[in-house]
Amino acid sequence: MRAIKIANYGDASVLKWIDTEPIPTLGEGQVLVKVHAAGVNFVDIYQRQGRYAVGVPYIPGLEGAGVVESVGKHATSGFRCGDRVAYTGHLGSYSEYAAIGTDKLIKLPSGLSFEEGAAFPLQGMTAQYLMYEYRKPKPGDVVLVHAAAGGVGRLLVQWARHLGATVIGTVSTAEKAGVAREAGADHTILYTTQDFVAETKRLTNGHGADLIIDGVAKSTFAGDLEAAALCGHIVVFGASSGPADPISPNTLMPRCLTVSGGTLFHFAATREDVARRSQDVLKGMKAGWLKLRIDHVIPLAEAEQAHRLLEGRQSVGKIVLKVV
């Protein structure tokens, strides 16, 4: 089969196109999926760089959509040949075939394309757990979302607004500010020219943000501690600018702040988790209040370009690789 493979950690140039990779052999409880589209995410970049080492050589990609081509022994959950499926949490999506445990599969509704199927699982379920597992926003709350025009950021903005919160989004450009406002952000802060702490306090009459969701980390976390409201909650779920600098837990005491860290890996660890979270996302999409934005659909062979676009913050919304 054709695939993208990484033999050594490094920059985007280590993504190599090959056409002689063996088709995966099915293990127990697995199905073989003919992959039609693969989602591109920041975690792919972290793994490629060796920041989240997965062991080389390997085929990257943790998210995709396609058709079940064959079913292995003891594969359960009612999946059959010909089923259209989506998934996340399985390494190896930058390829024509993937052998995947049925506990990770999501049945793809007939109204969604494979590109949409590859765009929603990781980011959609990430937004779902960030909304519900820490401090669920309620009407009157102020939610600050960093990188509000990105793939996860746009979904968070829409979800927080759906729950009745006032949403402030930080962005890097005027174009991205427009994207965040289109998604429903009440206010946007251009962090490249504005102090997001001062702006958050100004916009909230000194109150601050009740919930801050941060996938940026290093360049934002210190400011989060100042921008949070009394008894506010900060959730760090990524590190697009690098890991945040350490703090003493005692610094949280004076303003009664709480800080949490999250990863979808642990919040989608069981079949029940995947089913519940994915259905919440799909229901929001069907109802129309949760909308995907796919910015680029790029041929699999040009995965290097996809990584450079994402890494260089030249995309708004989702980047998808077209496999078939």
The helix content is: 25-40%
Low confidence ranges? none
Average the pLDDT over all residues and give the rounded result: 95
| Strand-pairing-aware structural class | alpha/beta
Per DSSP E runs of 2 or more residues, the count of β-strands stands at 15
Give a structural overview:
The chain has helices at residues 42-49, 114-119, 121-132, 151-162, 174-183, 196-203, 221-227, 264-267, 271-287, 303-311; strands at 3-5, 16-18, 30-40, 63-71, 84-88, 97-101, 105-107, 142-145, 166-171, 187-190, 209-214, 228-236, 258-261, 294-299, 318-322. The chain is α/β, with parallel strands linked by helices. It folds into two domains: 3-120 and 292-322, Quinone Oxidoreductase, Chain A, domain 1 (Alpha-Beta Complex), CATH 3.90.180; 124-265, Rossmann fold (3-Layer(aba) Sandwich). Strands 3, 4, 5, 6, 7, 14 and 15 form a seven-stranded mixed sheet that branches.
Explain the layout of strands and helices:
Layout: E1 3-5, E2 16-18, E3 30-40, H1 42-49, E4 63-71, E5 84-88, E6 97-101, E7 105-107, H2 114-119, H3 121-132, E8 142-145, H4 151-162, E9 166-171, H5 174-183, E10 187-190, H6 196-203, E11 209-214, H7 221-227, E12 228-236, E13 258-261, H8 264-267, H9 271-287, E14 294-299, H10 303-311, E15 318-322
Parallel strand pairs: 8-9, 8-11, 9-10, 11-12, 12-13, 14-15
Antiparallel strand pairs: 1-2, 3-4, 3-6, 3-15, 4-5, 5-7
